[in-house]
Amino acid sequence: MENQHNNNTNNNNTNNQLILYPSNWIYNASVIGLLKVINENELDSSKFEKIEFKNGTIRIPKEWFLLSKNETIPYLTSLLIKKIVDDEDLKDWKEKKDKKGKTNKEKYVLICQ
Predict the structure, then answer these.
(1) Taking the mean position of all CA atoms in its chain, how far away is CA 84?
(2) Helix, strand, or coil (residue 84)
(3) Do the beta carbons of residue 18 and residue 59 sit within 8 Å?
(4) Of all residues in the chain, what percent are helix, strand and coil, respectively (each to 5)?
(5) Alpha-carbon distance values, 90 to 23, 66, 72, 94, 97 (Å)
(6) What are residue 49's phi and psi, to 5 degrees?
(7) Which of 65, 91, 97, 108 has the least CB density, counted as fewest CB within 10 Å?
(8) Strand intervals (E) in 1-113
(9) How confident is the model at residue 53, as a pLDDT?
(10) Helix or strand or coil: residue 4?
(11) Tens-level pLDDT at each residue, the chain (113 residues)
(12) What distance lies between CA 90 and its chain's CA centroid?
């Protein structure tokens, strides 16, 4: 009975996680870069501790890739954008318009949904 409970807990946990498997060198380097960006932005490390390293895989909460009610850009996307825009304020970046008049917020939120 206890094993069945543990299996159900593991299945539920897996459903809430994106599992990254080792692959070629460029993919692995990208995963390492993502982990560095998360680690650099989390001063209290509470979010970084939610990442699981198991049997050569990395398990990241799926909710970090999804749009939350209070945000205009998913959590991980905002961390990556902050890293890319560096000195530029994220709020300014979201409101910046392209030649067609679309804001970055309009363009990139659609991709992330």
Answers:
(1) 15
(2) helix
(3) yes
(4) 55, 10, 30
(5) 32, 18, 11, 6, 13
(6) -70, -15
(7) 91
(8) 17-20, 52-54, 57-61
(9) 92
(10) helix
(11) 434 434 444 555 668 999 999 999 898 988 998 888 888 877 667 778 889 999 989 999 998 888 877 777 888 888 888 887 765 677 788 888 999 998 888 877 644 44
(12) 16
Q: What is the pLDDT of residue 6?
A: 42
Neighbour-count burial of 3, counting CB atoms closer than 10 A to its CB (0-12 exposed, 13-18 middle, 19+ buried)? exposed
In DSSP terms, which residues pair with 58 in a beta bridge? 20, 53
Using the structure block, give the residue that is written with the tokens 């409970």.
5
Side chain identity at residue 75, one-letter code: Y
CA dihedral 67, 44, 33, 86 (to 10 degrees): 80
Strand order in the sheet with 17-20: 17-20, 57-61, 52-54
